[in-house]
Design goal:
By secondary structure, this protein is of the alpha/beta class. It contains twelve helices and 13 strands.
């Protein structure tokens, strides 16, 4: 257990949507937080929140990483590899720039986390996937993620860094949900028989990360998903129902795929359901939003 009287400091590479929610939660409990972002505008907003923020460009490492990381008891990397992370560098851009600095922290770190993706499992034709499943990514983006996932696990195996890997499906929450898509008129109800997607509310990611921080198990790998994988068309239909709007007409996948980007097609290539048993049994997580219906209802009820 973390000593509640000790000063805890998180340093996060990539203070985006999810990590930013975690940072806000920790700040409210008296932690100090530092980390990186992509732009000076975001840096100013984070500093206004009380976060020691630095702009990180994968092509140009932090000028004084030792000072930036100094005092960190907890470390999180949420920067995706490759172009998704704003880099042409192969592999994880954080490790490419600062692996030695991170390894040097090992003796003082209580916990380190890496936000990976369930895309590393590839296609299982709808079968349930737990953390013991082989990695079989089907896209370049997911292959890069699998490599980064393995690289962070390697830091535990080779350097005793207290790494925990969290594999995330689609993330939704305030500002990033089917409700927002429906309101903006950016929805299509695409039907592909038997195709399921798992998802997770951002606040359930935050509580899972905090549960792991409170109960570190270096080397641990966790699927972070809710209890109800579902077709995306069902989620859109339910969001429309909540908003009192007529659901868009269903579009067969074969028709919709004609004008999809390669990235969009890649999301439809894999059909799998994610098993979340481990976060419940090992970390004691009780999901705030066990299903997408719970999450969307709560979001609408909060005026979000």
């Amino acid at each position: 257990m973390i000593d509640p009287n000790a000063t805890q400091r998180l340093f996060c590479f990539g203070l985006g949507y999810t990590a930013g929610r975690l940072a806000s939660s920790l700040l409210a409990d008296g932690w100090t937080v530092g980390g990186t972002c992509r732009t000076e505008e975001r840096q100013r907003a984070l500093k206004d929140m009380g976060i020691d923020a630095l702009v990180f460009d994968p092509e140009q490492p932090l000028a004084d990483a030792g000072a930036a990381l100094g005092g960190a008891t907890h470390l999180l990397n949420s920067v995706p590899p490759g172009r998704d992370g704003g880099s042409e560098i192969e592999g994880d851009p954080v490790l490419a720039a600062h692996k030695a600095d991170i390894v040097a922290l090992a003796p003082s770190l209580v916990w380190a986390g890496y936000l990976s993706t369930t895309g590393v499992y590839g296609n299982t034709d709808g079968a349930l996937v737990d953390e013991t499943a082989p990695l079989n990514p089907t896209s370049d983006r997911s292959r890069q993620r699998a490599d980064a996932d393995a690289a962070w696990q390697g830091l535990f195996e080779s350097n005793a860094l207290p790494v925990h890997v969290f594999r995330l499906p689609g993330i939704y929450g305030p500002g990033r949900s089917a409700l927002d898509q429906v309101r903006a008129g950016r929805t299509r109800r695409i039907l592909k028989r038997g195709h399921m997607f798992s998802r997770i509310h951002v606040d359930d990611i935050v509580q899972t990360l905090r549960a792991s921080m409170d109960r570190p198990h270096p080397g641990g790998v966790y699927n972070v998903a809710d209890d109800e994988p579902a077709p995306s068309s069902d989620v859109i239909a339910f969001a429309c129902e909540l908003l009192g709007m007529e659901a868009p007409r269903p579009i067969p996948f074969a028709e919709a795929a004609k004008d999809m980007s390669e990235m969009a097609l890649s999301f439809w290539r894999d059909n799998r359901r994610i098993d979340n048993t481990r976060i419940k049994e090992d970390l004691g997580v009780v999901l705030l939003h066990p299903t997408y219906k719970d999450g969307l209802r709560a979001q609408l009820g909060a005026g979000e």
